[in-house]
Design brief:
By secondary structure, the protein is of the alpha/beta class. The chain has helices at 12-24, 35-44, 61-71, 86-94, 107-138, 148-160, 177-186, 205-213, 230-233, 249-261, 287-293, 298-304, 321-336, 345-353, 359-373, 386-392, 397-422, 427-434, 438-447; strands at 4-8, 28-32, 49-53, 55-56, 59-60, 76-81, 99-102, 167-170, 195-199, 238-242, 263-264, 273-274, 278-283, 307-310, 342-343, 378-379. The chain folds into 4 domains: 4-132, Response regulator (Rossmann fold), CATH 3.40.50.2300; 142-312, P-loop containing nucleotide triphosphate hydrolases (Rossmann fold, 3-Layer(aba) Sandwich); 316-394, Helicase, Ruva Protein, domain 3; 398-455, Arc Repressor Mutant, subunit A.
Length: 468
């Protein structure tokens, strides 16, 4: 389909001549002799590009440009004038025009300007589509989970995504912490800014400091030039620090200052750099235990533990396994170009019985393997790795018992939550009303995800429960 152009000029002779020439070049050309005529044309159909003279009988080309910017942002605009000045050119570009051409127009110059404007428009549209795909791939809607703990996590993310609060994601490896970090970014007002991920555990302390804060030339052997650190790269966006539990004591001190002041000096430098970066951190370690053992700074722990979200392991949300498996199956088939294949019931049973030490990431890898290597019209037990198959051949007593515990957990959670609310989160009174001791109540609250009332739905009291 040819590109559509709208020519706006009150000189009828110039208008007809230029329109004819552009049609010969293969463009679909509309004509308007003034501002109002141009606005009517723009209201009736969409144009890829508007080429407007600045001096018109009922206004000027800047009026046409303003209309396009306000109501047709996808339309590129080139202004034309016979009285070009530097000030006019600056005004045109500042208002959003792609270019300002001066008369008399040279055919090659005009043709090149049109091609450049259309190319830029194509790039902008491709970027818009890529951002839409990122929203789909990394948005919270793409995180599959009907388990009540996952639903609670979604509620937390909705509440904090559009703030600057530091978020700490905890959970075993493979539970989806990096995906959730991206979802937080995509759901925030910073979504058009950069998302910068750093695997802290993959770098030694000396390199990690340079990676995050940058360095100046000559800071150390091999530093032949300046380097922008990841914090500066994430300015205006989000920085995700994965495996933060591996940070050395020396690096913890530097990180604490950055999180408090959002300021730092590059390695070997003296100039302080201020940044506006949102920080999300993740770890698969128990940082509270690390604090108690003296290997993780208490003040840093309190600073990063503003909002803490624990992702449950896959073995504790078995009801989500079929949903996740089908989701990954659709994704793997689309990405590999393979036809869609159903999941056999025996494969799903094997998935439910397997412990998934690698969590969601392992499930995704198993599905991708089955899609690439499987031959039949459905994925069966024979398409699964041997270690997953072996679980399916074992008695399902433990699985049945696990399913029964899951079935009973939700009513128990509901009863305890109602009594906690009625007792204003006073655990001593709650335990007495339930007829159990406080230790048993604490254990049940932890197992059922009720240990922190800030994250419990419909909590009507303060951010923290009153301590008895």
């Amino acid at each position: 389909m040819p590109h559509s152009l709208l020519l706006v000029d009150d000189d009828q002779h110039v208008l007809r001549s230029m329109a004819g020439w552009l049609r010969e070049l293969g463009y679909d050309v509309g004509e308007a002799t003034g501002v109002e005529a141009a606005r009517k044309q723009l209201a009736q159909r969409s144009f890829d590009l508007v080429l407007a003279d600045i001096r018109l009988e009922d206004g000027d080309g800047f009026d046409v440009l303003e209309t396009c910017r306000a109501h047709h942002p996808g339309t590129a605009v080139i202004l034309v004038t016979g009285y070009g000045t530097v000030e006019t050119g600056i005004d045109a570009l500042r208002m959003g025009a792609f270019d300002l051409l001066t008369k008399p127009l040279i055919d090659e110059e005009l043709e090149l300007a049109i091609e450049r404007a259309l190319s830029q428009r194509k790039v902008i549209e491709e970027n818009r589509q890529l951002k839409a795909q990122l929203d789909l791939r990394f948005g919270i809607e793409n995180i599959v989970g009907h388990d009540y703990r996952m639903q609670r996590i979604f509620d937390i993310i909705d509440s904090v995504a559009d703030t600057r609060a530091t978020v700490l994601l905890t959970g075993e490896s493979g539970t989806g912490k990096s995906l959730l970090a991206r979802a937080i970014h995509r759901r925030s007002a910073r979504r058009d800014g950069p998302f910068v991920a750093v695997a802290c555990g993959a770098l030694p302390e000396t390199l990690l400091e340079s990676e995050l804060f940058g360095h100046v030339a000559g800071a150390f052997t091999g530093a032949v030039g300046e380097k922008r650190g990841r914090f500066l790269q994430a300015d205006g966006g989000t920085i995700f620090l994965d495996e933060i539990g591996t940070a050395s004591p020396g690096f913890q001190v530097k990180l604490l200052r950055v999180l408090q002041e959002f300021a730092f000096e590059p390695v070997g430098g003296t100039k302080t750099i201020q940044v506006d970066s949102r920080v999300v951190l993740a770890t698969n370690e128990d940082l509270a235990s690390r604090v108690a053992a003296g290997t993780f700074r208490q003040d840093l722990f309190y600073r990063i533990n503003v909002i803490s979200v624990e992702l449950p392991p896959l073995r504790e949300r078995t009801a989500d396994i079929p949903l996740l498996a089908r989701h990954f199956l659709t994704q793997a088939c689309e990405e590999s170009g393979k036809p869609y294949r159903e999941l056999g019931s025996e494969a799903i049973d094997a998935f439910r019985q397997y412990a998934w030490p690698g969590n969601v990431r392992e499930l995704q890898n198993v599905i991708e393997r089955a899609v690439l290597l499987g031959k039949g019209d459905r994925i069966g037990i024979a398409d699964l790795p041997a270690h997953v198959q072996s679980r399916a051949s074992r008695p399902a007593v433990r699985e049945s018992a696990h399913s029964l515990r899951e079935s009973l957990a939700e009513p128990e959670r509901h009863i305890i939550l109602e009594v906690l609310r009625a007792c204003h989160w006073n655990r001593t009174v709650t335990a007495e009303r339930l007829g159990i001791n406080r230790t048993t109540l604490y254990k049940k609250m932890k197992r059922l995800g009720l240990e922190d009332p800030r994250f419990a739905r419909d909590a009507q009291t303060t951010d923290r429960p009153p301590h008895p």
